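Entry 14. Structure prediction run on the chain below.
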Amino acid sequence: MVMVFDGKKFVEDKEKFLQQEFKKLVKKGDVLKLVSILVGQNQNSRLYISLKEKIAIRLGIVFEKREFPEDVNVRELIDFIKSKNNDFGVKGIMVQLPLPAAFDNEIVTILREIDSQKDVDCLTPENLGLLMMGRPWVLPATVRGIWEILGKAGINRKTIIGKNVCILGRSDIVGKPLANLLINLGATVTVCHRQTGDLVKKTKAADILISATGQPDLIRGEMVKKEAVVIDVGSPRGDVNFRSVASKASFITPVPGGVGPVTVVSLLENFLDLALQRAMG
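Output returned:
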């Protein structure tokens, strides 16, 4: 019988632990501030920031939101990031992606300005490079969340070795870094995208199938290997036809209530890790 991952319960347990750890830091006199930067009026980004803000406040973190118009000058954005790099109380900085299309040629210029030791989303070239080399300080929040969810399916550093993994989607914040992580852990990874041919052959060969395309009902039961582990990262409706795939899988994440809430709490776990590293010097 398929195991359906309960993201709500998982996050509740994580929050209890994080609350205790943040209280310890505050008692030592640490200021814990997380800065969120939004450019433009993307409503999905606003919603995601709101979810992060609610949990951060519950955990005792000072959450600073800064919004810039779509036509903001890149220099103004960079100057703001640099000011937060130099603010000792700020332990984490995140630029909400995607940025407006006008910034496509400037995104690396902007993200590289974030202090890598405050980069809670693993967006800087330095931190992504360390991940690729197998020596990450921090993982992208969704990637960290997926790895922790896989643990609930019985996948760990030993059992991942030799597993066939199929990832659908090649974004810079999920598909590519997730593939790097799993390759470094010993999995055999296939990354599929819109130009991929014979998709069904690739998905049916996967012991672990992870879809992050945002295309509803892309994955159906006939595309899934029996007893596969299936992780649905699609937003907002999910990539996986839940009913047909659940009849084949051994483990599956629902949408909503699966990867989404875990991603938010994973970002705050990154924030804790970076705050502790900074406290230790």
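The beta strands are 3-4, 33-39, 62-68, 90-95, 164-168, 188-192, 208-211, 229-232, 251-252.
Filed with the rest of this week's runs.
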